[in-house]
Amino acid sequence: MILPIIARIRPRNLFTGSVLVFLAVTFYTYPGGQLAPSTSLSDHQGAAEINDLDGRNWCSVDDIVNGHWVESPPVESIEQLQQKFFHHFNRRMRCDPITVNPGQTDKEAMEQRAMQIGSPTFVPRGEGCLVRQTPWRDMIKMILRMPAGVTVIGDSIGQQLIGTFENMLLQADGLVKDHSNSVWDRTIYMDPSKPETLQLLEEAGVSIKRLEVPLVTHWRTHHLGNKTDLDVGFASIEKYERAPYEPVEWFEMFHENLRKMYGLLDDQDQDQGGEGLFTRDDVRPEDSVIIMQTGPHWTEHELGHDMSNEDALSGFKNMVDMTESRLRALPYPVNILWQTIASPHIDCQAATRFENQRDDISSPLDVNKAAPHNHDRMALMNEYLRSKFSADRQRPSSWLSNLLLPGSWRTASVSHTVRLTDVWPLSVKRPEAHTVPHKGDCLHYCETGVPDEWFKLCWHMIMEDEKNRDYEYRGVPASNS
Predict the structure, then answer these.
(1) 3-state DSSP call for residue 253?
(2) Which of these, 286, 257, 238, lies nearest to 466 by C-alpha position?
(3) N or C terminus: fewer CB in 10 A for the chain?
(4) CA atoms of 316 and 319, how far apart (whole Å)
(5) What single-letter DSSP state applies at residue 210?
(6) How far is residue 47 from each of residues 53, 204, 329, 402, measured CA to CA in Å?
C-alpha cells in the first residue's frame, strides 16, 4: 500500500524528491516490498519478470520473431477477415487478384485473394504464450499519453506498416481520420469536434493540447537522411551520385514535435499556469515512439551506377550509425524501434502457400536469378542491423523513475535503447502473400496478413514498456511449437 501512495505525490523541490526516493528504495528492499522488476534484462528474462508482475504468460519477442504459420479454416467473407485482424470495416485490401474470373468484378477478385492470403494464422513459438494486443480504445489511450505519439520513418514498406495502424485505429469510426499532403507524409489524428474524442482525452488523462500532434505520423524517406546527410555518409565512395529523392527533413520535424509537447510538460511541472498536457496526477507520460525502417531503395539507380555491394553496404552502415547517434542524443524519453528489412521473394509469382522452412529469398523456381531493388544486399544489411541492435529491454534503473513523479518526465531516463523488430523471419515464410506478384512486385505484401504481424510485433514491444498499468489486453494464445 505504501508504494502507490508515494507514487501519487509530485515533489516540487529536490529535498522532497530525495525523501521520496529514499522511502521508495527502502520499501523496495524491505521484505515483501519487491513490486518492481529489475531491468537491463535479456529478452527472455524480461518476459519472465513481466509475467511475475501480472500473472500472464506473455510471449518474449524472440517467441514472436521465431513463430510459424499454420493452416486455419478458410476465411469466407470480408467480415470474417476484418474480425480476425480487428480491422476497420471500410479498410482497403491492397491485394491485387492474380486472375479475374468471368462474371467477377475486380473488387470481388481482390477481396477473394485478400481472404485467401488472410486465412493462414501466425503462431508464436512457445506453449500458450500471449501476444500483447489491446482494443482500439486502449490503443488510442496509450498513444494519447505519448506526448509526440507514434512516428514511422521509412519508405513504401513503412507506409504498409502505417496502413496497419490506420486499419486498427479507424475502428474508432468517425473519431480518427487520416490525412496526406503528399507521398512524403501521412498522419492519423483525432477529430477534436467529436464529443467522444473529449471522452477519450478524459480517460487518458490528457488535455486537448495533446491533439496538436497527430496520433501517428509517417514521414517517407528512402535513405534515412537528407541529401546533405547522404553526401557525408557516402563521402569516401567514388561511385556515389547524389540521390534524387529525400525532400523531407524528418528529424527536424520529429524533434520539433518532441520539443513542443515536452515543453508543455515542463510548464506543467513548474506550475507556469494555463492548461498543461496532463489533467490527472495519477497518469504518467508514456514514452513517445519512433519506428525506423529502410531497405529497398539502396540501389544503383538511386545512389550511383556500378556501385559495388561493398560500397553500398558501407554507405548504408554510415547512414544507420548517423541516424542512431541523432536519436540517442535526443533529450526526451523516446522508445526507438528499428525494423529489419522485410523479405522480398524473387519467385513470388510461382508460390502458392506459406513455407515455414524457408529462410532466404532464393528459390529453385527462380529462372533469371534477377536481383531487383538490391534484393541481394538485403540479407547483408539485416546482418548489420542485428549486429548493432537487439530486441532486449535494457533500461537501467528506469523502474524507480517510472514509479515516482506521475505526470513528469524529467526524472525518466533519456539513455535510449534502440530495439530491433526483426520482421524478416515471419515475412520470408510467405512468398505467396505479395501484393501484385503477376506484375513482378515481389516486395510489397498484401495488407491483410504479413504487415498485420509486423504491427503486432511492434505493438507488443511498445506495450512491454507501458508506464500506466490500466490498459485492457486482448491476449492471443499460441499453440504448442
Answers:
(1) helix
(2) 286
(3) N
(4) 5
(5) G
(6) 10, 26, 28, 18
DSSP secondary structure letters along 120-151: SEEE-SSSS-EE----HHHHHHHHHTSTT-EE
Helix, strand, coil in percent for the chain, rounding step 5: 40, 15, 45
Give the CA diameter of the chain. Answer: 78
Instruction: Give the DSSP letter of residue 396.
Output: T
Q: Cα–Cα distances in Å, from 208 out to 201, 266, 269, 438, 468?
A: 7, 17, 18, 48, 20
Report CA-CA distances (Å) from 229 to 4, 219, 305, 409, 449: 47, 16, 19, 31, 35
Contact between residue 395 and residue 417 where contact means Cβ atoms under 8 Å apart: yes
- DSSP assignment string, 227-250: HHHHHHHTTT-TT----S-----H
Residue 478: count of CB within 10 angstroms of its CB: 22
What type of residue sits at position 207?
Answer: S
Rg of the chain over CA atoms, in angstroms?
23
Residue in 137, 146, 223, 206 with CA at minimum distance from that of residue 175: 137
Parallel, antiparallel, or unpaired: how do β-strands 121-123 and 434-436 relate? unpaired
User: Can you read off the three cell numbers belonging to residue 43?
Assistant: 529478452
C-alpha cell read off for 87: 480491422
Q: What is the identity of the amino acid at 196?
A: E
pLDDT over 50 at 37, yes or no: no
Indicate the pLDDT class of residue 246, thresholds 50, 70 and 90: low
Half-sphere exposure of residue 273, counting CA atoms within 13 Å on the CB side?
0
pLDDT at 64 over 60: yes
Higher pLDDT, 267 or 410: 267
| Whole-structure pTM value | 0.85
What is 291-337 written as a DSSP string?
Answer: EE---TT--HHHH-TT--HHHHHHHHHHHHHHHHHHHHT-SS-EEEE
Which string of DSSP letters, residue by residue, matches 60-79? Answer: PHHHHHT-EEE--PPP-SHH
Residue 169: which residues within 8 A CB-CB, separation 6 or more?
88, 136, 139, 140, 176, 188, 215, 216
Residue 240 CB contacts under 8 Å (≥ 6 apart), including other chains: 230, 234, 303, 304, 307, 311, 315
Q: Give, as one character, the DSSP assignment of residue 118.
A: H
Query: Using one digit for the tens of pLDDT, what is the confidence trace for 176-212?
Result: 888 887 778 899 999 999 999 999 999 999 999 999 9
Distance of CA 59 to the CA centre of its chain: 17
Q: What distance in Å separates the CA atoms of residue 411 and residue 265, rounded to the nearest whole number? A: 12
Residue 256 falls in which region: left (phi positive, over 0), alpha (psi -120 to 50) or beta: alpha
